[in-house]
Amino acid sequence: MINKRSYRKSIINQSIIGHINNNIVEYIVMIIILLIGIILGTMYIKKADVNQTQEISNYINDFLNDIQNGSSIDLSRLFRTSVYNNLLIIVLLWISGLTVIGMPIVYLIVSVKGFCMGYTISAIIATVGSTEGIKIVLSTMLLQNIIIIPAILLLAVSGIKLYKAIMKDRRRENIKVEILRYTIIAFCVAVINVIASLVETYISANIFKMIFI
Fold this sequence. Notes:
Elements: H1 2-22, H2 24-46, H3 50-68, H4 75-97, H5 103-128, H6 130-168, H7 172-212
Helix pairs in contact: 2-5, 2-6, 3-5, 4-5, 4-6, 4-7, 5-6, 6-7
């Protein structure tokens, strides 16, 4: 039994490593686009006007004050919001990856995800300072994004792979197989993102409360 499990684990590891090696250029490009988005998000918050910066600061401070004063976090609402936001990205990536003209949108979605991360991190740190800001970021964003980011990159790269496969061989039977494979990957990524939402809701939220209450 142990040998079978070890064998299956070895096969899975080899498949993952093989997939990354075969698509290393695409992964590097996607990571660069994600990092560019993060940098742009960080730069944007620094150049925001006074009123906008004040609104962001007030929102973050009010949220922290509510938590510290004993207000509870609505976990069910947080979970629904997280699932919706994550699945929206997956659906948009999946639809974009199915069309040739949608490929630029795949790059755009990845960059927007990076932008939102950079914007959020920069806004928190600018509002509460580096020490407290880093604590908030690590407690509320780290765990789920360790799951979400690789999953999004996987789907984005799979979309590029689908596009190349269709361009290389346009026979209808092969196209159907590639689309089915891509859709299965999208479904798996969606499941992974629901797991990430559970982590965000029931683990990250509790870590946050332990630190700041």
